[in-house]
Structures are given as structure tokens and as C-alpha cells.
Specification:
With 230 residues, the chain is of the alpha/beta class. The chain has a single domain, classed as Spore Coat Polysaccharide Biosynthesis Protein SpsA, Chain A (Alpha-Beta Complex). 34% of the residues lie in helices and 24% in strands. It is built from 7 helices and 11 strands. The protein has a 7-stranded mixed beta sheet with strand order 5-4-1-6-10-7-11, sandwiched between helices. The protein has a two-stranded antiparallel sheet with strand order 2-3. Strands 8-9 form a two-stranded antiparallel ribbon. Helix 2 links the parallel strand 4 and strand 5. The longest helix is centred in the last third of the chain and has 15 residues. The protein is globular and about 55 Å long. Catalyzes the formation of 4-diphosphocytidyl-2-C-methyl-D-erythritol from CTP and 2-C-methyl-D-erythritol 4-phosphate (MEP). It catalyses: 2-C-methyl-D-erythritol 4-phosphate + CTP + H(+) = 4-CDP-2-C-methyl-D-erythritol + diphosphate.
């Protein structure tokens, strides 16, 4: 298997969480959210190294967490950019030259299990780009600027996209550098490949693989981890 590197963008602030500073340092079952996120990759024999990208003011704290929790697969901690996309680009460029496949995973998505991660890697073999996604439960309607419905989208073909997302390293670098030179910003890394015409495969994810964005998400994450302990 090609050497796999992990890039974890962790520079986001907790505006919707109502927290001061980085939401990824909030406690989840007694440990920072970011530690839960990184640990699954630390445990994986498939992962060669991890790069964490953080805000300038958070770098020292991230270094302390990496040391305190013995996350020795973290090879580098680097400063992020203005937008998440900028941070991912910097993280990818910071990976060792030997890394051939890159997994990007949100720092605030701490409930990915080792089993689901390995299933994702196995299912992604043979694809230059693959992302996790889950079927949407609600009916999705498209509206115009005044709020009037213009279309009802076919729910069976819609997916709510998660991370991890995996890419051939050369392809990911190419699209990130092209987007940066053109001033193009996508909604996630996969959208950059779509913009340049590369195919992206969707692999079914898990309903439990939530992103902790609001206080309600943090409450739910606590409940999910408690359930897993029983």
C-alpha cells in the first residue's frame, strides 16, 4: 500500500459553538476534541505520518497536546492560512516527499472509528480521489433569492459529505496550487478536483461521524462515546 499521510486542518474558531478560541480544544469525555480526532490515525498501521495545521496562537498548545498524549506520528505542526483551503494546501506541502496518498480530515470530527477508517481506505483503493458521504434523510428543495422553491432535488442521489477524504498526493497538490493561483475557493478539497474535471468517488460513511460545530453537537458526541463504552 502507498504511504499515507494525514492532514488535519485545526485552525477553525468556535463561533457557532459560542466558545472563545478554538473549538477543537473543548473537552469531550475529559480530553480535547483534537486529541480524539488525531488518536484514530495514531492507532492505524496504515498511516505513516500526520500533519496538524493550526492557528498561529494555538501552535504551542497543539505541540503540548501532541507531547502529553504521545501522538508521535505527528511529524509537523504548521501554521494555517486565511481559509481552510489555504490551511490544507500548506499541510499537504508540509508532508514528507515519500507520502503518495493524502487523507484530509476535519480537526473537529472526533468520532471516526478505526474500523470505519480502514473500511474507507480499502474501499478507496483504485480511486485517485474518494470521499465519505451519507444519504440525506430530509427532502432537499432548491430556492431562489426570494425563498421560492425552484426545484425538489432527487434525494436518492444526494449525499451529505464528510471527512476523511483521500487523494493521490500529486493530484491534490496540483489542484490546490491551481486554485490558489486562480483565486478559486471550493467548499471542500474534493470540489477542487471537480472544478478541474477529476473524478471523485463517494464511499458510504457513518451517521456517527459528526462534525462538532454547535453545543448540541458536543452533547451528541458525548452521548455517542458513552454508548460505545457500554
Amino acid at each position: 500500500m502507498a504511504e499515507i499521510g494525514i492532514v488535519i486542518p485545526a485552525a477553525g474558531q468556535g463561533k457557532r459553538m459560542g466558545a472563545e478560541g478554538n473549538k477543537q480544544f473543548l473537552s469531550l469525555k475529559g480530553q480535547p476534541i483534537l486529541v480524539h480526532t488525531v488518536r484514530v490515525f495514531q492507532m492505524s498501521d496504515c498511516v505513516s505520518e500526520i500533519v496538524i495545521v493550526g492557528a498561529e496562537n494555538d501552535l504551542a498548545l497543539i505541540e503540548d497536546l501532541v507531547s502529553r498524549y504521545n501522538l508521535d506520528k505527528v511529524a509537523r505542526i504548521c501554521q494555517g492560512g486565511v481559509q481552510r483551503q489555504d490551511s490544507v494546501r500548506l499541510g499537504v506541502l508540509a508532508l514528507s516527499p515519500t507520502i503518495q496518498r493524502v487523507v484530509v480530515h476535519d480537526g473537529a470530527r472526533p468520532l471516526l472509528t478505526l474500523k470505519d477508517f480502514h473500511h474507507f481506505l480499502q474501499a478507496a483503493e483504485g480511486f485517485s480521489a474518494a470521499i465519505m458521504g451519507i444519504p440525506v434523510k430530509d427532502t432537499i428543495k432548491q430556492t431562489n433569492s426570494s425563498g421560492s422553491v425552484t426545484d425538489t432535488l432527487p434525494r436518492e442521489r444526494l449525499r451529505a459529505v464528510q471527512t476523511p477524504q483521500i487523494f493521490d498526493r500529486q493530484t491534490l497538490e496540483t489542484v490546490h496550487l491551481r486554485a490558489a493561483s486562480n483565486g478559486y475557493y471550493g467548499t471542500d478539497d474534493a470540489s477542487l478536483l471537480e472544478w478541474m474535471g477529476y473524478p471523485v468517488q463517494v464511499i458510504e460513511g457513518s451517521q456517527e461521524n459528526i462534525k462538532v460545530t454547535t453545543p448540541e453537537d458536543l452533547w451528541l458526541a458525548e452521548r455517542i462515546l458513552t454508548m460505545r463504552e457500554t
